[in-house]
C-alpha cells in the first residue's frame, strides 16, 4: 500500500541523518526476500515497496502492485536476473497472451563508476545526463541490484541515491519458506528491444480515436444530404461530405474519461492538387445529439441560410455565427439554444506540400512530405465525450484539393482510472470562421461596420476563461492579412483586453511551402508575417480570464478595426470564442 509522509521538520531531520550515513545492515541468514522502500519526492514524499525474490543464482524484482482500477493499457512489470549467464530480462505483461521482454547483459562496461569506501560499504558514483547517481553496495555472496539497468556490482545494493536524494533503500531481509520456487527465465514472452518495449507501453496507454483517415477535401463532390430526422438517420462512423466536398463530417462515440487525462488532436495534411495556402478548421457541433436543439448541422445538411441570421450595418447577412438567444431563461435551457460550432483547432495549409515537391528545387532546402499539427484540447474535452459530431474543413475550389488524417489522443496523468470526468464545461459564444464558405456562408466582414456582441450567462464557477482564436485575412498589401490589427475584448461595454494577432516566424516554415512565390529580393511569400497565422501552422488560442465576473447575464464584444476593401478585394476576420468554465 502506498504511504505518504508529510514533510514535517522532525521527519526531514531523521531522513537526512539516515540518508547521509548509509550503513551495512544485518541480513537474515539464508534470506530469500529483500524488501526495499522506494521514494518519490514532491509536495510530499510518497513511498512504495519493491522486492527481490532470490533463488540460488537467479532472482526476480517485483514492484508493489497498485490498488484500484488501473487505466487501460497498464502494464504489470517485473525483472528477472540470471547471475550465472550475467543476463537481465525486463518484462511487461498486458494479458496472458500478450507479454514482452527485453534481454540485456547484467554487467555494463559503458558506464564509468568512481568507487569509494564509506562506513564499510563500497560507493559507486557516476553522472548520467547531468544526474549524479550513487550506489551503496554491501559485501554479499550474490550480486543483487534492484535497478539492474545500471549494471552489476559486487554484492547487494543497500541504497541508491539520485542527485543527493535517496531513491530506494533496503529496509529488511527475511527468509520465507513460501517464497516462489519456480523462478525461471522461460515463459511466453515475445523478445523485443528496449526501445520497442518502451513504445509499446506508451502506445497502449494512449487512447486513440481515428476520426478521419486520408480523407479528401476538394471541390466538386455531391453533398451527403440526410433526409428526415437526421439524428436518427445519420450513420455512426461514416465520413459525410458537404460544402461541395470541402467539409467532412463524422458522427462518433467517444469514451468518457477521468479528468486526469490530457487530450490532443493530431492532424496530418498534404496537397492533393491545390497549390495555395488555405484556411482550415477542426470543429465539433454542440447540441447535435440533443433533441430538439437547433444546431450547426441544420446549415450543413440544408443551407447556411437555415441558421440564425445576423444582419450587419453593411446590410449583409451572416449565418450561424452566434447564438440566437432572446431571454435570460434560455441560457439556462441549453437544449433550446442554437450554438455555433466550437473550434478545436484553426490551421493553415502551406503552398502545395507533398503534391508539388518536384516543381522547385532550392539549395539547402528539402521539402517536407506533409504538414503535421498537434494541439492540446483538454480544456474543451467536455465536448469530446459520448456522442460527438466532428468536422474538418479546408476552403478551396480545387478538384484535387487536400487530404487529411485526424486522430484524437488521450494520455493518462495517473495509472489509476480513479474518478469520472470533472464538472468543467464549455459555453459556445461565436464563430465567424466560415467553414461553409463553399456552400454560401458569408465571410467575417462585419467588423468593418460593426462589432460582434453576444449575451452570455456566467454560472457560479471557480474559474471562467474565454478561449479565443483570431486570424486576419485580406491577401494584398493593404489587406488585414499583412497588417497587424488590435482585437479589443469588451465586457459589458467596457474595454477589458486587447490582443493583436501577429506571427513573425513564418520564415521558419519554408520547407513546407514548395510552390510559394519566390521574389527578387530573396524572400518567399510564405516568409511574410501575418495576422495570427503562417502557411503550414496552427493558430494557438488566446485565453482571457473572466473569473472576476459575477454570476448572471453579461455581454462580450469583439471589436476589430478592419481595413477598407480595395479593387474588388476585401478583408475579413475569422474569430471564434468559447467560455471554459471550471
Structure notes:
The protein is mainly β. It has five helices and 33 strands. The protein has helices spanning 9-20, 194-205, 230-233, 297-301, 328-331, and strands at residues 3-5, 33-41, 45-55, 58-63, 76-82, 87-95, 98-105, 114-118, 121-128, 131-138, 156-162, 165-174, 190-191, 207-217, 240-242, 247-254, 262-271, 279-284, 309-311, 317-319, 342-348, 371-376, 386-394, 402-411, 425-431, 452-458, 464-473, 487-491, 494-499, 538-539, 542-545, 552-559, 572-581. The strands form six sheets. Strands 1, 2, 3, 4, 5, 6, 7, 8, 9, 10, 11, 12 and 13 form a 13-stranded mixed sheet that branches. It has a six-stranded antiparallel sheet with strand order 15-16-23-18-21-30, with no helix packed on it. The protein is elongated. The chain starts with a strand and ends with a strand. Mean pLDDT is 91; it is low at 1-19 and 325-335.
Number of E strands: 33
Number of helices: 5
The computed structural class is mainly beta
- The fraction of residues in strands falls at 35-45%
Radius of gyration: 30 Å
How would you state the average pLDDT, rounded?
A: 91
Q: What is the distance, rounded to the nearest whole angstrom, between the alpha carbons of the first and last residues? A: 32 Å
Task: Give the SSE layout.
Blueprint: E1 3-5, H1 9-20, E2 33-41, E3 45-55, E4 58-63, E5 76-82, E6 87-95, E7 98-105, E8 114-118, E9 121-128, E10 131-138, E11 156-162, E12 165-174, E13 190-191, H2 194-205, E14 207-217, H3 230-233, E15 240-242, E16 247-254, E17 262-271, E18 279-284, H4 297-301, E19 309-311, E20 317-319, H5 328-331, E21 342-348, E22 371-376, E23 386-394, E24 402-411, E25 425-431, E26 452-458, E27 464-473, E28 487-491, E29 494-499, E30 538-539, E31 542-545, E32 552-559, E33 572-581
Parallel strand pairs: 7-13
Antiparallel strand pairs: 1-3, 2-3, 2-12, 3-4, 4-5, 5-6, 6-7, 8-9, 9-10, 10-11, 11-12, 14-24, 15-16, 16-23, 17-22, 17-24, 18-21, 18-23, 19-20, 21-30, 25-33, 26-32, 27-31, 27-33, 28-29, 28-32
Amino acid at each position: 500500500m502506498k504511504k505518504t509522509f508529510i514533510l514535517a521538520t522532525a521527519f526531514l531531520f531523521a531522513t537526512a541523518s539516515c540518508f547521509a550515513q548509509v550503513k551495512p545492515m544485518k541480513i537474515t541468514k539464508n534470506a530469500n526476500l529483500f524488501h526495499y522502500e522506494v521514494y518519490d519526492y514532491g509536495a510530499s514524499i510518497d513511498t512504495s515497496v519493491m522486492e527481490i525474490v532470490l533463488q540460488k543464482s537467479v532472482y526476480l524484482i517485483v514492484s508493489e502492485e497498485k490498488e484500484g482500477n488501473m487505466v487501460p493499457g497498464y502494464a504489470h512489470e517485473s525483472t528477472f536476473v540470471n547471475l550465472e549467464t550475467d543476463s537481465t530480462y525486463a518484462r511487461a505483461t498486458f494479458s496472458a497472451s500478450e507479454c514482452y521482454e527485453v534481454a540485456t547483459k547484467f554487467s555494463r562496461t559503458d558506464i564509468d563508476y568512481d568507487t569509494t569506501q564509506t562506513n564499510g560499504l563500497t560507493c559507486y558514483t557516476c553522472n548520467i545526463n547531468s544526474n549524479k547517481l550513487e550506489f551503496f553496495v554491501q559485501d554479499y555472496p550474490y550480486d543483487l541490484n534492484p535497478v539492474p539497468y545500471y549494471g552489476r556490482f559486487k554484492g547487494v545494493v543497500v541504497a541508491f541515491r539520485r542527485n543527493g536524494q535517496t531513491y530506494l533503500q533496503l529496509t529488511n531481509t527475511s527468509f520465507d519458506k513460501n517464497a516462489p520456487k519456480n523462478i525461471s527465465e522461460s515463459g511466453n514472452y515475445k523478445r523485443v528491444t528496449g526501445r520497442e518495449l518502451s513504445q509499446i507501453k506508451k502506445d497502449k496507454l494512449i487512447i486513440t480515436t481515428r476520426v478521419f483517415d486520408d480523407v479528401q477535401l476538394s471541390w466538386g463532390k455531391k453533398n451527403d444530404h440526410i433526409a428526415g430526422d437526421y439524428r436518427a438517420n445519420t450513420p455512426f462512423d461514416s465520413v459525410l461530405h458537404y460544402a461541395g466536398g470541402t467539409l467532412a463530417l463524422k458522427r462518433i462515440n467517444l469514451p468518457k474519461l477521468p479528468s486526469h487525462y490530457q487530450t490532443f488532436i493530431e492532424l496530418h495534411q498534404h496537397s492533393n492538387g491545390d497549390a495555395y495556402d488555405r484556411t482550415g478548421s477542426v470543429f465539433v457541433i454542440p447540441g447535435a445529439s440533443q433533441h430538439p436543439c437547433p444546431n450547426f448541422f441544420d446549415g450543413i445538411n440544408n443551407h447556411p441560410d437555415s441558421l440564425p441570421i445576423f444582419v450587419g450595418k453593411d446590410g449583409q447577412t451572416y449565418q450561424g455565427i452566434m447564438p440566437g438567444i432572446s431571454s435570460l431563461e434560455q441560457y439556462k435551457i441549453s437544449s433550446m439554444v442554437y450554438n455555433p460550432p466550437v473550434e478545436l483547432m484553426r490551421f493553415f495549409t502551406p503552398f502545395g506540400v507533398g503534391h508539388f515537391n518536384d516543381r522547385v528545387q532550392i539549395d539547402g532546402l528539402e521539402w517536407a512530405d506533409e504538414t503535421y499539427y498537434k494541439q492540446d484540447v483538454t480544456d474543451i474535452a467536455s465536448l469530446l465525450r459520448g456522442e460527438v459530431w466532428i468536422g474538418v474543413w479546408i476552403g478551396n475550389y480545387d478538384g484535387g484539393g487536400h487530404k487529411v488524417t485526424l486522430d484524437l489522443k488521450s494520455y493518462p496523468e495517473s495509472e489509476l482510472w480513479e474518478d469520472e470526468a470533472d464538472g468543467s464545461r464549455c459555453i459556445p459564444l461565436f464563430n465567424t470562421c466560415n467553414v461553409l464558405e463553399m456552400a454560401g456562408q458569408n465571410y467575417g466582414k462585419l467588423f468593418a461596420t460593426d462589432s460582434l456582441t453576444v449575451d452570455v450567462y456566467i454560472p457560479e464557477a471557480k474559474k471562467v476563461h474565454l478561449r479565443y482564436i483570431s486570424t486576419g485575412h485580406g491577401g494584398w498589401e493593404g489587406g488585414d492579412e499583412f497588417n497587424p490589427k488590435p482585437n479589443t475584448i469588451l465586457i459589458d461595454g467596457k474595454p477589458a483586453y486587447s490582443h493583436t494577432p501577429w506571427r513573425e516566424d513564418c520564415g521558419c516554415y519554408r520547407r513546407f511551402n514548395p510552390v510559394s512565390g519566390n521574389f527578387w529580393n530573396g524572400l518567399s511569400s510564405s516568409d511574410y508575417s501575418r495576422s495570427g497565422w503562417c502557411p503550414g501552422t496552427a493558430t494557438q488560442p488566446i485565453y482571457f480570464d473572466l473569473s472576476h465576473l459575477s454570476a448572471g447575464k453579461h455581454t462580450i464584444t469583439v471589436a476589430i478595426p478592419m481595413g477598407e476593401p480595395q479593387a474588388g478585394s476585401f478583408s475579413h476576420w475569422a474569430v471564434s470564442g468559447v467560455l471554459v468554465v471550471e
